[in-house]
């Protein structure tokens, strides 16, 4: 099997699973309990906070554990909106955000908030000047994805953060779910106030994640409860999952430092093979692109048909994001980039991890080329 759908989810590292099992069986106490078993769990949870904070280059107090990217984005956006709605009800985001951001702000629109959606270029990037022009006296939040989950375009986070420093009352949220473990961010230097990560995108477990909330930034909690995570995310913590996520993040960061160039080489091999196919159009930009995501269309071939054709060869890819793929709708990101509906409906996403190899890429290229020829014959 060749697994090229890592932006949807990654396979947990063996060491991560072992860590989860050990904590689940030996340190199963509720970290809020006063007895020794609870104290042991609380110690492990505190260590996980500290380890993740150190890797991300932030303070331990600034890490809030969540259930993943969707909850993290909801908590950041709605938490800021609810906490600061007395000062303003205007939010700025982009046309290429993940559904967890897009639908969060749409919910807020139903509650009387106003949202400005910044367009992107044909390369899938926003222009920071467009964000600056959209700022109003009542703007309270700017939310921008770091790496687009469908085409891999990298947004100018540093430039946006720099311009927002002139607007200290506006909070800056970044969806870093696809970037963590691939392209690092300096949260403080880039002026980021809130930042989302998700464990299962870097070989951790599903149901684990974290939200960076800069010291001094107040957010309303989405869940009422016992005051866990500094009263920002109530509910009994998933101690084993968070310990496992800390291990996954450390291992992924080590691999990034060793193998990110190799990852780009593997993606480049696939891209070169696609360029030899007359029917193929590559949508991932040539510059400011992620090292692990490649999006392309095959003229006249529906995406779901091609996904299943490759599956027969033991190669697993996807269409749009996993959250949107079953809706059978064209990619909103590609449409925003000016791609035609026909091309958007035939778009395929390949997404790699550090476990993929050059040999897999070479085999996949041949399978793609052969599948295109076979489907063309059938369609004649």
UniProtKB/TrEMBL annotation:
Q: Which residues form a coiled coil?
A: 351-378
The alphabetized UniProt keywords are:
Coiled coil, Pyridoxal phosphate
SUPFAM superfamilies in the record, alphabetically?
A: PLP-dependent transferases
Which coenzyme or cofactor does it need?
A: pyridoxal 5'-phosphate
Q: Does the keyword Coiled coil apply?
A: yes
Instruction: Report the InterPro entries cross-referenced here.
Output: Aminotrans_V_dom, Cysteine_dSase, PyrdxlP-dep_Trfase, PyrdxlP-dep_Trfase_major, PyrdxlP-dep_Trfase_small
What the entry lists under PANTHER family is as follows: CYSTEINE DESULFURASE ISCS 2-RELATED (PTHR11601:SF50), CYSTEINE DESULFURYLASE FAMILY MEMBER (PTHR11601)
The protein in question is named: Cysteine desulfurase
């Amino acid at each position: 099997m060749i697994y090229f759908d890592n932006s949807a989810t990654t396979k947990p590292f063996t060491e991560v699973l072992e860590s989860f099992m050990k904590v689940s069986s030996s340190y199963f106490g509720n970290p809020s309990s006063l007895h020794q078993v609870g104290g042991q769990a609380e110690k492990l949870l505190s260590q996980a906070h500290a380890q993740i904070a150190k890797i991300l280059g932030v303070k331990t107090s600034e890490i809030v554990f969540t259930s993943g990217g969707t909850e993290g984005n909801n908590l950041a956006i709605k938490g800021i909106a609810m906490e600061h709605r007395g000062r303003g009800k205007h939010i700025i985001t982009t046309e290429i955000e993940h559904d967890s951001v897009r639908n969060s702000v749409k919910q807020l629109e139903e509650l009387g908030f106003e949202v400005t959606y910044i367009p992107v270029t044909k390369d899938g990037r926003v222009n920071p000047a467009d964000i600056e022009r959209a700022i109003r006296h009542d703007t309270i939040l700017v939310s921008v994805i770091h790496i687009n989950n469908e085409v891999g375009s990298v947004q100018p986070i540093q430039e946006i953060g720099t311009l927002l420093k002139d607007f200290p009352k506006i909070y800056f949220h970044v969806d870093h779910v696809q970037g963590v473990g691939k392209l690092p961010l300096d949260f403080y230097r880039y002026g980021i106030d809130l930042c989302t990560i998700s464990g299962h995108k870097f070989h951790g477990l599903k149901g684990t994640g974290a939200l960076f909330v800069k010291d001094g930034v107040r957010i309303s909690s989405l869940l009422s409860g016992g005051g866990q995570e500094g009263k920002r995310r109530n509910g009994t913590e998933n101690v084993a999952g968070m310990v496992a996520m800390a291990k996954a993040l450390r291992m992924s960061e080590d691999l990034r430092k060793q193998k990110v160039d190799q990852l780009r080489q593997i993606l480049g091999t696939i891209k070169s093979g696609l360029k030899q196919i007359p029917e193929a159009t590559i949508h991932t930009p040539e510059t400011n692109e992620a090292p692990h995501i490649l999006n392309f269309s095959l003229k006249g071939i529906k995406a779901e048909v091609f996904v299943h054709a490759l599956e027969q060869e033991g190669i697993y890819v996807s269409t749009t994001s996993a959250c949107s793929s079953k809706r059978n709708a064209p990619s909103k990101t590609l449409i925003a980039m000016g791609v035609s509906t026909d091309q958007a409906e035939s778009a395929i996403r390949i997404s790699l991890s550090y476990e993929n190899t050059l040999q897999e890429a070479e085999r996949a290229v041949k399978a793609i080329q052969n599948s295109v020829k076979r489907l063309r014959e059938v369609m004649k």
